Amino acid sequence: MRLYIIRHAEPDYKNHTITEYGHEQAKALARKLDKEGITKIYCSPLGRAIDTMKYTADLMKIKPEILEWTQEIPRMPITNDNIEDCPAWNLPGEVIFEESSYLTLEDWHNLPIIKDVKAREKFTEIQEESDMFLKQLGYERVGNKYRILNSNTEKVAVFCHGGFGRTWIAHLLNIPLPMFWASFFIKTSSVTTILFEERSEEWAVPRCIGFGDTSHLYEAGVECSFTGLAGNFY
């Protein structure tokens, strides 16, 4: 099975949709996913994700299913002497990596900068929802791998968000959450592909075979946008 985790196109946050430019991104994305042969479509309930997804669903004539748990995660704002109202999932890497002894699967939630914003509680919610979702698709989480209940070749697209997407991928790939938040950025309309690699008859282990792909934009002559990237814009 291949799981395609897709960030919505360039957002118009004020109007809960996507910009005119975002519509061009979404059209190009739809053509890419049509070539990929997507078999199932799931989507966040938020307008910017839905309006991105519609182009793919209409082109491929697939009825989408809304997944409430894939909407953007709370900002969990952090403020101190050096940071003003910053979402936990967008903290500067220099802050996250300052105390690297906490950056393990067991201890990441004790990182002092995020300890009081309930990041662990939200992550646990996403873990539980993810595990139920994937079990329905034939893969039951056991520890850090998945027991194969029903091997399949589905190509599953999930239209969601930047903060949520990075949080979910961290769970799937067993990477400490703050480390993933600080080290990876997902561009608008980009596609991250997770293969549920089956190297035995019993177990599947998620493997990222493509991260943040925006080749569809280059093919269509549409420029990338970096909404959500705090600094160093092109």
What does this 3D model show about the protein?
The chain is of the alpha/beta class and 234 residues long. The protein contains 7 helices and 12 strands. It has an 8-stranded mixed beta sheet with strand order 5-4-10-1-11-12-9-8. Helix 1 (20-36) packs across helix 2. The longest helix is centred in the middle third of the chain and has 18 residues, at 119-136. It is globular. The termini are far apart. The relative contact order is 0.21. The model has no long low-confidence stretch (mean pLDDT 95).
Lay out the secondary structure.
Blueprint: E1 2-7, E2 11-12, E3 17-18, H1 20-36, E4 40-43, H2 47-60, E5 65-66, E6 77-78, E7 86-87, H3 93-96, H4 119-136, E8 139-142, E9 145-148, E10 155-160, H5 162-173, H6 177-183, E11 191-198, E12 203-213, H7 215-220
Parallel strand pairs: 1-10, 4-5, 4-10
Antiparallel strand pairs: 1-11, 2-3, 6-7, 8-9, 9-12, 11-12
Helix pairs in contact: 1-2
